[in-house]
Hints:
Largest sheet: 5 strands, antiparallel
Cofactor: Mn(2+); Mg(2+)
Enzyme class: transferase
Strand content: 5-15%
Domain Oligosaccharyl transferase STT3 N-terminal: 47-415
Number of helices: 31
Distance between the termini: 90 Å
Catalytic activity: an archaeal dolichyl phosphooligosaccharide + [protein]-L-asparagine = an archaeal dolichyl phosphate + a glycoprotein with the oligosaccharide chain attached by N-beta-D-glycosyl linkage to a protein L-asparagine
CATH architecture of the domain at 562-750: 3-Layer(aba) Sandwich
Pathway: Protein modification; protein glycosylation
CATH topology of the domain at 562-750: Rossmann fold
Amino acid sequence: MGLTNIKQKESAIILVIILIFALFGFWLRLLPMEQLTSGLVPKVIFMDSWYNMRLIEVIVSNFPAYPWFDPMNGFPIGKDNDWGPFYPMLSAVIAVLTGAVSRNDIMTVASWIPPIFSLTMIPMLYVIGKTVVDRKTGAISACLISIIAGEYLYRSFYGYIDHHFFEVIFSTAFILFYLFVIRESIRENISRYPSSCLILYSTLTGLMYYFGIMNIPTMVLFAGIIGGFCVVHALISRDEQSLKSLTFAHGILFGVFIILFGLTGIHNEGMSLAQYTPTHIFLALALIIEPLFLTVALHLTRGKTAGLTWGIIIGIPVVIYAIVSIILPSLVQTISSGFSYFFFFSYKETFINEMQMWDLTRAYHSFNIALLVMVVGLVLTIYQTFKKYDAIRLCILIWAFVILISTILHLRYEYYVAVIVVLFTSIALSYLWDLLSPSKISEPKSLKKGQKESGITLVKKNLPIIVVGIIVLIITAMSAQITWEVGTKQLQMIGMNDDWAGALTWLEKNSPDAGIDDLKIYNKDGFSYPNNSYGVLSWWDYGHWITYLAKRIPITTPFQNNVPPVAQFLVSTDEKAADSLADKMGAKYVIIDYETINSKYPSLPLWANGQNERDKYQKYYYQQSKNNPNQYDPVLTLKPDFFTSMVSRLYIFDGTETNSTGGSLVQYGEMQTGSQKVPAISRITTLTPDQAEKAASEPLSAGTDLVSIQYTHPITKIPALMHYRLVYESPTVTASDELAEMHNVKIFERVPGYQINGTGTIELPVVTNQGRSFTYRQESNNGTFTVPYSTSRDGAGVHVTGPYRNLQTGETFEVSEQQIS
């Protein structure tokens, strides 16, 4: 068999293997399909996907216009759209071409885009691996990128309608074409003429940067990566000719971007890199000038010491930065704040999960043994790069370290790091392949005519493919296992459930029109809300759900606009103060779910008043374990302000007056555990309701706290709310005891209320839309009652079964809906 035929056969085998991995990876990405297409409404994954669905619908209805301003966000101001148009525009184009018109059809089309476009990463990783090392590296990379677990794969699930996956596609394509630019810049002498290849690759790199920015401005990180590469390349290589070529390439690359962005990309005022402002053009100009400056610096220091070169290359930009900070302080502030936000945004100050640091447990959970093999690949690449300088390898190292550092600081960037893990794992496995090849171990003995190879000889001959194949299969199996867990089980816990879907569907049908056409594009200039507009107050996680399903205007969303005042409302212990906040925000409805009162509650006081306020509502104490006296277990305790906060009064107690059930007086001292001190319980005293009321009215001694450990057991009497009435609750019961029954999602309407003269206590029997009965009870205040429910008994939804009744006088009162509102 000829050498050509052997290579063709090898290529065919490699292609088949890559296709098998591609098909398996594609199947993994379809795992969530069944759960997303069942239930009350078709669903998409996570929060931001719902807003992208809204954008796609708006574009389809106004094709091809894009809503750069959205009044269905951030009531009562509206919000500039900081997301780029690429992803929703692509989805809208495909929807239009396929004839998708209905909401469900558009969602189906958009849901297929992530898994289908994930296939584009396979040839890109093959080419990068082949360019950096060899064909084996490319083939292994192409296989692994199909199946590697973690955020990269999850964000390409069917139904994950979000721009993050296209961040990975465009950033990878950008690096790929820039590697070609580096290769061409080293090959040629720009003083004669630029090659057509250099022009082509520079243009393609510029297009990828433009599309990446128009997808999401985070793409500027990769401009910074190649900027950093140019500096390090200049300092190490001192190669003027390659820098001349890079100057020419950057001129084309960022020139293409400046032209396209100048024509289509500027939609915001100011100097923010996080928005579509002219600052992106200034950054592009700086990156055109950078290699020119480096070329001049190398020319001026030719034959001089390396220290002088370093001094000029580093010192002059520092001086320029200082001058610009005086002349254009807003520009410098923009760059500094953007850098600080990207790398040093604090999880502890916000409790935004994706801003947590990426620890080893999470990293291994996502990438299994590939993480360990990647480290070997990084070490090998560093060694090979500096043993014999290689600009292409230097570029991928800078790329790798910037992405790894970004991900370690904020786990949200894990979707970027998957490419790094795959590439450097493949580099290590390719090296292992070469190390185990027969020529490296021993020369194979020639066989006599008719003699067959022994089993040991066959194993030695095929040892590379056996060992590398086993490692790849282990990575595949471990990735598939965790992906199955996430795709079939965990997504159900973080996505929209039928309780929320039902609640928002109800709200759309049973609440007054908010005065905004949800499919119309509004111009920010001169825009003002109609008089009948109002906002829906809920925690920020649920804002996009409210926009899309209820077609109402949320006050806060996952964009984190208006989060502090919403948090202040929810933790306010005074209805009058809470009402003042609600007035400013234009809130008419309040939606609270079980997670808001439970797992999300610690973030409420954090956003409202800062870290120092967290212990005012809830606090963990440590109590000696009954089973192990050497072990202390954490105990979550609830303080009086927890029960009197608006979120508890609404969700747990339905806005009605609730008597004290007593509490516990906890005495504690500090205990050292590792590097921190924690409060350890030394004594617990159980208090009756009267004792608890008395303890709450007096100052507590140091090392003592008044607490409860049950959500439905308030420490002090909880007064009734006068301006909030329950109008809907979902069917699922999340918790119940003899005092309360909590349904997953509850909707309250904010009303002016109606004043009834009288003293004492007034009661009203209420039945919810789920058939649950409770009594609304209120004590008089200054000789009046302000009541939120009408007594019209239509029997539909939440309704009353009798009139208001004064317990002291026996007098009854009927109140109409007109009087309430």
